[in-house]
Amino acid sequence: QVQLVESGGGLVEPGGSLRLSCVASGFIFSEKGFKWYRQAPGKEREFVATISSHGDFVNFSASVKGRFAISRNNLQNTVYLQMNSLKSEDTGVYYCGVWGDDVWGQGTQVTVSS
Fold first, then answer.
1. 48 with 36: CB under 8 angstroms?
2. DSSP state of 9
C-alpha cells in the first residue's frame, strides 16, 4: 500500500542543523511531487517546502527560505529536507506528503531548544 515514513527528527540547539528523510513506497516515486509541512503545538499545519517529480522545481515558505533545502533521490525513493540555522520557531512535527494527494507520513518531531 501507499506509505510514507519520515525520520531524522530530534533535539537540536538553535543554529544547528538536521536532515529529515521521507521514504516512499507503494507507488511510482518518480512520477510524484512531494511536500513537507509542519505543525507546532497549538497551531495549524503549515507549508514548508515542495519539490517537483523531476526535482527541477522547488518552493519554500518565506519563514524557511534560505535556511532549508529540499531534494530527492529517485533511485532510493527518498525525499530529504535539510534544515540549517534552526530557530526555536522551527519546532514542531514535520510531515512528508505527496503533492496533490491526501497522503501523509506519520511525522517526525523536531525540537529546537538550548
1. yes
2. -
Grid cell digits, residue 84? 540549517
Task: Determine the Cα–Cα distance for residues 109 and 101; give it in Å rounded to an integer.
Answer: 22
Q: Which helix (H) or strand (E) holds 80?
A: strand 78-83
Beta bridge partners of 38: 46, 94
Which one-letter DSSP state was computed for residue 42? T
Task: Quick: pLDDT tens for 45-83.
Answer: 999 999 999 999 999 999 999 999 999 999 999 999 999
Cell 518552493 belongs to residue: 59
Residue 66: CB atoms within 10 A of its CB come to 9
C-alpha cell belonging to residue 26: 507503494
